[in-house]
Amino acid sequence: MTQVRRSSPPVSTLALAIAMTLSAMPAIASEPTQQQATRDAVARAFAASDRREAREQHGAGTPTQGERWLRRGAPSGTEDTRAAPPLAAAATGAGTDDPQPYLMADGSRSADLEVAAASWRADSEFQGDWGLQAIGAEYAYARGITGAGVQLGIFDSGVDDRNPEFAGAGKLHLLDTRDGIEFPDDPYEGQVGNFDGRPLIGFSGYSDHGTHVGGTMVANRDGQGMHGVAFGASLHSATHHLARDAFTGIRGSQFDVEPAAFQALAQSGARFVNHSWGSSWTVGADASAEAVAAAIPEGWKAHYRKVLGLGGLVHVFASGNSGNAVHAGAQAALPAALPELEPYVVSVGSLDRDDALSGFSQSCGTARYWCVSAPGSGIYSATVDRSLPERFEAIRQELADGDPGLSRRQIIDEIIAYQDYFVFPSRGVPLPHGDEPVGVNQFHIDLLSGDAGTTPEQLGAFADRLLATAARISGLLHHLDIEAEHPVNHGLLYELRDDPFSWVDTAVSNLSGPGKLIRFPEIVESELGIVDDGGQLDRVVALQEALYERLAAAGYTPGHGFNSGTSMAAPHVTGALALVAERFAYLDNVQVRDTLLTTATDLGEAGVDGVFGWGKVDLGAAMNGPGAFLRDFDVSLPEGTVDTWSNDITNGLLHTGREQDRGALIKRGAGALTLSGDNSFDGFTVHGGLLSLTGLNAYGEGFEGVVENGALSLAGTLRGNDLRVNGGMAMVTTSGRLENGDLFVSGDDAQARAATVSFNGLQSGGSTRVGARGRLGGIGTLGDTTVAGTIAPGNSIGTLTVDGDYVQQAGSFFEVETTPPDLSDRLEVTGTATLEGGTVVALRGPGVYKLGQGYGFLSAAGGLSGRFAAVDSSEVTPFLKLTLDYAPTSVSLGVSRGLSFATFADTHNQRVTGAAIDGLDDDNAIVGSLVQLFPEDAGRAIDLLSGDAHASLQSVLVDGSRHLREAALKRGRGATDAFESQGDDDRRFGAWVEVQGNGGRIRSDGNAAGVDYNGGATLVGADYVFDSGLRVGLMGGIGDTDVTVRERLSARGGLRSRFAGAYLGHGWGRLGLRAGLSWGQHDVDLERRVVYAGFEDALRADYDADTLQGFVEAGYRFGNERWGIEPYAQFAQVRVDSDRFRETGGAAALSGRTRDVDADLTTAGVRFDASLRSNGQAQDWLSLRAGLGYRKTGGELVPWTDMSFADGGRFTVHGVPVASDATLLDLGVIARTGANSQFELGYSGQFNDDARDHGGSLRWSLRF
């Protein structure tokens, strides 16, 4: 609280300090008048400090005494006209990956926190307020923390929004609280504001108290003068009685601004509200809590219980300025009477530069539990500077420039005389009904008696004399070496020199005392000997108006200045709360408050004391999290937040001695929090996210760590407390220690939740219990352990040790992960192992399990008793069988063959191939690899091993044979072909050449894999036409076909073919008959890969195959030379046989032979032709052809191949079948290139649901 020029009678800090100074000066002290004046001043100072002005409604809200302003510009060296660099975005928490996470004052970055902090301490604007360094604000700024995004409140005399320190959008919010307040008519409402968040300046006097306080909180970092503690925060200003118009007070107006202001602040978004005001009282600093509570009026208690509970805001109250012997003021001490408000109140005492309690500051007293100390002496901040009206400035300037001819003693005598007459009350006049006494001095007596004047003109002259005296003292002080005076007086003397009207403001405010007193004329007469002449009120009002008129001529401009008081200390704390709130954005208001209190630097007596409370605010420590818990600390970190609290966190009772000041940590939210200090609070509970403990944690008897959900990481020590993991998971790292505490993993009841613990550290002096839904793993060492749930030693493969006895209960599980060739999880027990049942669950690791291998997983040095109930190998392939082998001190898993491969076959080929593999020896590579697979993978592997591509090649050869057959039959149809018969009859010989291309796919039948093929052939032929019309010819050629089996890892084959054949054709009118015989010899080259987990072979086989076919076709043509329709019928028999083959390339190589395939193909269809002839031509020059047919295939449609592996195991696989039904489509065009030559282009397609084949051909033929 500062001294505001509208207050109750002020304490004379000057008089007190002068008394101390003069007593040390014998020459002056020997003068009786001076000695008496000094003694009187001291007495008045103490008397005034014990008084408070009674508020009209509930007596709260008046400023306390003892603070003085100094306006002389910025101190030397603090001006910085450079634009301040913008701050980077504030970092949240610790653990950033930025190699230079700390922010320098010039905007650059550093890897060293201390280097960054030092740069701020060297910053000139930072140095403007010495309190910033005193509270360690540089450690917040170095982290990029400025209060950004945090909203603060101030309830004070108003904040001057014209001051550049509050410039910027969203910086200052003015709260208009006039609605609901009944104001009397007042012609002197001031020049700036009237309960709208601004100060009243002008007629009403002068109050920049709130501007100074607000500047300390949030003033901009703009390169000028100073900046606020939380210069990135915003401020909501509500106007208090500190700015009330004294004109209304004199008339006894009844109005209360607090309810509306508290409501507006609660709705503003502010989280922390500064109150640099309070009510003075006489309660001693050593008063008991009961005495303090009793001293607070009941009406106040009801009022503050209501307004301080609004919105969950935290309220920061200045303790008061009545001296160290006085208890913190009523507002600051409210929780003594209203304990429920304690979490929402902070009391603040003032410190000087030596960390001593400022002489004016009231002590914390019983408010110590919610009290801290902060810099409040000589604080530089924003102000409203005032200049003297011209006529009084002339008086001041004349004395300042000339030689007054006065000694130091004489100048001080004038100051004392001025304050004794005009400012400070010399006595208190009691009022009826228990009201506070009214302070009265000689100035008041002269005014009430009429000695000062009775007419407005006389009182105006009286006002001129008062103001002229103030101007004179200002001029005289220019000749006084103020720095040589007692330091306590510096602020006051500078103020009287640079703002001589400051005491006039006080006098104006103090007129309300006589204004109240004249309502009791009998008391005025009895106490002061003044008889009411009926004009007392008029004289008081007339003098006030005269002073207003003169004050209105003063000039008011934004500026900076010094001030002292607990009013200056409180905003340092409120600003610090904003920095802590930004740093820990996930904390609520009370948690921010507790963090700031419990990290304060202890001053005075050890622990929380009645002078300094928790001690001096220390933002360097507060940036590292709370220092103690005063209640359960229930914190929720949102997803993505990673933070570290590095302070040693205790229970508050260790500092306060109050049993109630203790609590546990409750961690919620998906974020991660690390506690890296040594902690001794009341345990923890994790409900979400991750909590990591890296220090020593000893919570005391009866408390424990609990994980209900989320995760815990213990890399430090938990000493003397149990750890219960009821849900979620916990990790105890290799450095983690659980000392003298038990570990519980889940519970045994039906409501128990799944919980997992990976224990990699050391448990000593305790035991472990794994409940029915618990799971325990890791590579650490535990004490006696009982498992009713699941134990899974290792983190993957690893060994877990029980240093004691082990019990595996019925219904439990023991998970064993094994990795070939000989690695497995192990549980090593130094004592005995008792097996009461339970199931061993085998988990497979990577690698190939060797049949016959054993994996030891449990050993007990003290002996083994009992048996497991079963083995669950469902996580291992069913082709492996796991058995338990017991020894006196150990148990191991044995590996042998399990179910047969044929058991899981889905197709014929899988079944016969699997059965063949089942017959192979255990040491066969195929067996050793297949037993590692699960059935779905084994089925695919067996398909690769089956070699069905060999059989499917037969179907490709059958389908491909039609292209050779069609080439021969086309030539045989010439006997009845009208277009061809138009050549010269004497040309009996014919020759032709045909180039073919074809491709197709035979789809899988669900057993064998589908086959894709493409290739081509070149054929030549010659024939002769006999006189009877019989055509006989021979043909031959070569061809190549590529075959791909995509479903078998794209197995590839090649067919290199040679062809020979004979054909004939004859026509009897419209009836035609053609037939032929062909033979094909094929070099088969097949490459395939067998690759699956643990096995890979590249196989190849070369062998021969033959194709023999005979065919006959009859057709009858309707039409003439220009067009024709020919129904036809065709029969062909195709036989394919293959030699034996033997693959090379590895254990999966097969040998065998494909059985002969005989296919009977019967086709019926119709052909169309149409010829074109130009006018005058003897022959048609173009013939268009089309045909549509249906083919039925009989005989052996499914090719079989008899196979065997190198080590035995014979089996027969089936290939993809030949299509049994197909639709045929033929398209073609023949162009005559000469009288006896032709060029033909043709397409032939075969379509079936399971197969497709497409062919194209180019043929040139010649007759000669």
UniProtKB/TrEMBL annotation:
Biased segments, Low complexity type: 37-48
Residues at the catalytic site: 156, 209, 567
Segments of skewed composition (Basic and acidic residues): 49-58
Ranges for region Disordered: 30-85
Superkingdom of the source species: Bacteria
PANTHER family on file: CEREVISIN-RELATED, PEPTIDASE S8
The family this protein is said to belong to: Belongs to the peptidase S8 family.
Gene Ontology biological process terms in this record: proteolysis
Signal peptide, first to last residue: 1-29
Keywords, in A-Z order: Hydrolase, Protease, Serine protease, Signal
One GO CC term, this protein: outer membrane
SUPFAM superfamilies on file: Autotransporter (SSF103515), Pectin lyase-like (SSF51126), Subtilisin-like (SSF52743)
Protein name per the record: Autotransporter domain-containing protein
Entries under InterPro entries matching the protein: Autotransporte_beta (IPR005546), Autotransporte_beta_dom_sf (IPR036709), Autotrns_rpt (IPR013425), OM_autotransptr_brl_dom (IPR006315), Pectin_lyase_fold/virulence (IPR011050), Peptidase_S8/S53_dom (IPR000209), Peptidase_S8/S53_dom_sf (IPR036852), Peptidase_S8_His-AS (IPR022398)
Gene3D superfamilies in the cross-refs: Autotransporter beta-domain, Peptidase S8/S53 domain
A GO molecular function held by the record: serine-type endopeptidase activity
